Amino acid sequence: MALFSNTYLVLSILSLLACAANGQLSPTFYNRTCPNLQSIVRSVMAQAVQKESRMAASILRLVFHDCFVNGCDGSILLDDTPTFTGEKNAGPNANSARGFEVIDAIKTQVEAACRATVSCADILALAGREGVALVGGPTWNVPLGRRDARTASQSAANSNLPGPSSSLSTLISMFAAKGLNARDMTVLSGAHTIGQARCTLFRSRIFNEANVNASFAALRKRTCPASGGDGNLAPLDVRSPDRFDNAYYQDLVARQGLLHSDQELFNGGSQDAQVRQYSTDSAQFARDFAAAMVKMGNISPLTGTSGEIRLNCRKIN
Ligand code: HEM
Ligand SMILES: *[C@@H]1O[C@H](CO)[C@@H](O)[C@H](O)[C@H]1NC(C)=O
Ligand SMILES: *[C@@H]1O[C@H](CO)[C@@H](O)[C@H](O)[C@H]1NC(C)=O
């Protein structure tokens, strides 16, 4: 009993310290200033995912692409203009990043309820969480209080985001550059249990690689031939493409990862044991994924009086 309460005390102090260290993000940041925020985000996301279940995946990917490029500051949401180059046309985002209209729809309702109060970066973080929960995944408390960037960086979007042909060591080092360790990288990659990828990004995997299940490769070649069909989509998780579960890791163990970068997590290297564990323990995956999303959400937020509360997520005030 004494041991338990001491442990509890230490954990409470640690979580207070962690809170202070990440720029004062707090799950209750808007409780007084925008009490309906979370229910607004939930209802707009529920409609969007009902209309198209892939939207849960598309929004979750936006969270990743926001946070990895100069921090979780809503920079990915800014449109290009004749005098401003944003991130939407960077290699990893062009013809690929999607779901911006859903963020706009949430922002419109949030502005109507609480004007000039909630950042686009926080709306995106909450929308990502709701999407995951709506398709069967875990939920978690989202620390809030981020502010929106007044800048964006196409070059950082090109250089800080890993690509589908990345090796395991590149994946590990690109996540390490953001303060995330190899375990975080492997569990966050589990986001690929939902969503789709274009043929052009996995063609060489299904045609040229050795570490791929032959009947899986044959199945994918039906809609991703040796030439043509570059934009044809295939599910990242062959087992349950629209459900947020641990099947992605079962795919990897069966050598049915869609992207080269996916299969790198289970190719005789350092992450094999973690992949095997998640393939049989969905509860552990769900817990670790939720914790890693909070950690990713803490990458260099703007807080206090830095940045701004954008009124329209697509443009600087
Ligand atoms: C580990 C390194 C990662 C690489 C190399 C990677 C790469 C990719 C690629 C190439 C696509 C397909 C894009 C297209 O076809 O246009 C994709 C889709 C996706 N990624 Fe990742 N990704 C990584 C990590 C993550 C993380 C950490 C998350 C979120 C936590 C994430 C979430 C998603 C989702 C949900 C989709 C599907 C989006 C949709 O259907 O609209 N990815 N990723
Ligand atoms: C803050 O708001 C959230 C979401 O509405 C709610 O779950 C939570 O209980 C509130 N917390 C406090 C301390 O009021
Ligand atoms: C490849 O996948 C198919 C379909 O899931 C399975 O029946 C087969 O046993 C797998 N082949 C190998 C060599 O693992």
From TrEMBL:
<dbReference type="InterPro" id="IPR033905">
    <property type="entry name" value="Secretory_peroxidase"/>
</dbReference>
<keyword id="KW-0575">Peroxidase</keyword>
<feature type="binding site">
    <location>
        <position position="162"/>
    </location>
    <ligand>
        <name>substrate</name>
    </ligand>
</feature>
<dbReference type="GO" id="GO:0005576">
    <property type="term" value="C:extracellular region"/>
</dbReference>
<keyword id="KW-0560">Oxidoreductase</keyword>
<keyword id="KW-0964">Secreted</keyword>
<feature type="binding site">
    <location>
        <position position="87"/>
    </location>
    <ligand>
        <name>Ca(2+) 1</name>
    </ligand>
</feature>
<dbReference type="GO" id="GO:0042744">
    <property type="term" value="P:hydrogen peroxide catabolic process"/>
</dbReference>
<feature type="binding site">
    <location>
        <position position="237"/>
    </location>
    <ligand>
        <name>Ca(2+) 2</name>
    </ligand>
</feature>
<feature type="binding site">
    <location>
        <position position="69"/>
    </location>
    <ligand>
        <name>Ca(2+) 1</name>
    </ligand>
</feature>
<keyword id="KW-0325">Glycoprotein</keyword>
<keyword id="KW-0376">Hydrogen peroxide</keyword>
<dbReference type="InterPro" id="IPR019793">
    <property type="entry name" value="Peroxidases_heam-ligand_BS"/>
</dbReference>
<dbReference type="GO" id="GO:0046872">
    <property type="term" value="F:metal ion binding"/>
</dbReference>
<dbReference type="GO" id="GO:0006979">
    <property type="term" value="P:response to oxidative stress"/>
</dbReference>
<keyword id="KW-0732">Signal</keyword>
<dbReference type="GO" id="GO:0140825">
    <property type="term" value="F:lactoperoxidase activity"/>
</dbReference>
<feature type="domain" description="Plant heme peroxidase family profile">
    <location>
        <begin position="24"/>
        <end position="317"/>
    </location>
</feature>
<comment type="similarity">
    <text>Belongs to the peroxidase family. Classical plant (class III) peroxidase subfamily.</text>
</comment>
<comment type="function">
    <text>Removal of H(2)O(2), oxidation of toxic reductants, biosynthesis and degradation of lignin, suberization, auxin catabolism, response to environmental stresses such as wounding, pathogen attack and oxidative stress.</text>
</comment>
<dbReference type="GO" id="GO:0020037">
    <property type="term" value="F:heme binding"/>
</dbReference>
<keyword id="KW-0349">Heme</keyword>
<feature type="site" description="Transition state stabilizer">
    <location>
        <position position="61"/>
    </location>
</feature>
<feature type="binding site">
    <location>
        <position position="71"/>
    </location>
    <ligand>
        <name>Ca(2+) 1</name>
    </ligand>
</feature>
<feature type="binding site">
    <location>
        <position position="245"/>
    </location>
    <ligand>
        <name>Ca(2+) 2</name>
    </ligand>
</feature>
<comment type="similarity">
    <text>Belongs to the peroxidase family. Ascorbate peroxidase subfamily.</text>
</comment>
<feature type="disulfide bond">
    <location>
        <begin position="67"/>
        <end position="72"/>
    </location>
</feature>
<feature type="signal peptide">
    <location>
        <begin position="1"/>
        <end position="23"/>
    </location>
</feature>
<keyword id="KW-1015">Disulfide bond</keyword>
<feature type="disulfide bond">
    <location>
        <begin position="199"/>
        <end position="224"/>
    </location>
</feature>
<dbReference type="InterPro" id="IPR010255">
    <property type="entry name" value="Haem_peroxidase_sf"/>
</dbReference>
<feature type="active site" description="Proton acceptor">
    <location>
        <position position="65"/>
    </location>
</feature>
<feature type="binding site" description="axial binding residue">
    <location>
        <position position="192"/>
    </location>
    <ligand>
        <name>heme b</name>
    </ligand>
</feature>
<keyword id="KW-0408">Iron</keyword>
<dbReference type="Pfam" id="PF00141">
    <property type="entry name" value="peroxidase"/>
</dbReference>
<keyword id="KW-0106">Calcium</keyword>
<feature type="binding site">
    <location>
        <position position="66"/>
    </location>
    <ligand>
        <name>Ca(2+) 1</name>
    </ligand>
</feature>
<dbReference type="InterPro" id="IPR019794">
    <property type="entry name" value="Peroxidases_AS"/>
</dbReference>
<feature type="disulfide bond">
    <location>
        <begin position="34"/>
        <end position="114"/>
    </location>
</feature>
<dbReference type="InterPro" id="IPR002016">
    <property type="entry name" value="Haem_peroxidase"/>
</dbReference>
<protein>
    <recommendedName>
        <fullName>Peroxidase</fullName>
        <ecNumber>1.11.1.7</ecNumber>
    </recommendedName>
</protein>
<feature type="binding site">
    <location>
        <position position="75"/>
    </location>
    <ligand>
        <name>Ca(2+) 1</name>
    </ligand>
</feature>
